[in-house]
Amino acid sequence: MAKKMLMIVTGTDKINSDNKTGIWVSEFTEPYLVFTEAGYEVTVASPKGGKAPLDPNSMEEDISPEWEEALKRLKETAPLKEVSAESYEGVFLPGGHGTMFDFPDDPNIKSILQHFADYNLPIGAVCHGPAGFVNAVKSDGTSIVEGKKITAFTNEEEESTELDKYMPFMLETSLRDKGAQVEIGDPWSDYAVIDGNFVTGQNPQSSLTAAKAFIEVVEGQRKEKFGS
User: Fold this and answer.
1) Average pLDDT in the 18-35 region?
2) Is 128 marked active-site?
3) Could you say which of 27, 30, 97, 127 is catalytic?
4) pTM of the predicted model, to two decimals?
5) E strand map for the chain
6) What is the DSSP letter of 26?
7) Which of 89, 128, 157, 219 is catalytic?
8) How far is CA 227 from the centre of its chain?
């Protein structure tokens, strides 16, 4: 049985005329490499497909060859409307401020997350990636994060970027309003939370930890289902 993973990335390239945004590079590359090294075929998709934007503030001067290879996958992402949730064993949402603008109300993201939540399949995200959870509900109408222990980019961290005034909402606050039990570590510390098949990381520093924890959850469920 082929091992398949879905990564959903933002397609939004600016907050306003003065602030460009996109995917926070390490939040995509580090999980992507963890997943591929574990033998997963990764589909990279975005709301509209095509070339995905990178947040210029996240671009390091010296990009490793491995990262360069991963970043090639962002040059032509699949449109989410062409993605079938049933084809994947896990879905992972990297962050970047762009997600705050296109993730919450995208109908395809909501549909995909509903499928994974309804069937208790692995859902992962890091930093602003949980913006996709804000308006996602199960088939019974309840929020997919209701009662779930999760983490995400905190209000304190958002305020420290000085971009909070441009955000359509505060992510931590919105997740709490949806019934999530938001757990937070120290600002800018490596902090991840696992609750059943939900795995989340707080910020860019948490990308690798969250990805490794997520792959363990996916592998664990795969073992239960297929025996290997």
Assistant:
1) 97
2) yes
3) 127
4) 0.97
5) 4-8, 14-16, 19-20, 41-46, 78-79, 90-93, 123-126, 149-150, 181-182, 192-195, 198-201
6) H
7) 128
8) 28
pLDDT tens digits along 91-134: 999 999 999 999 999 999 999 999 999 999 999 999 999 999 99
DSSP class of 77: B
Query: CB of 204 within 8 A of CB of 191?
Result: no
Structure tokens at 104: 């919450």
Q: Does residue 127 carry a catalytic annotation?
A: yes
Q: What structural domains does the chain harbor?
A: 4-226 (3.40.50.880)
What does the block give as tokens for 132? 């996709």
Instruction: Tell me how far apart the alpha carbons of residues 131 and 146 are, in angstroms, rounded to a whole number.
Output: 14
Report helix, strand or coil for 193.
strand
Q: Which tokens is 209 given?
A: 């930890």
Q: Which of 27, 89, 157, 158 is catalytic?
A: 158
Element (H, E) at 215: helix 207-226
Instruction: Output the six-digit token pair for 33.
Output: 């490499």
115 is catalytic: no
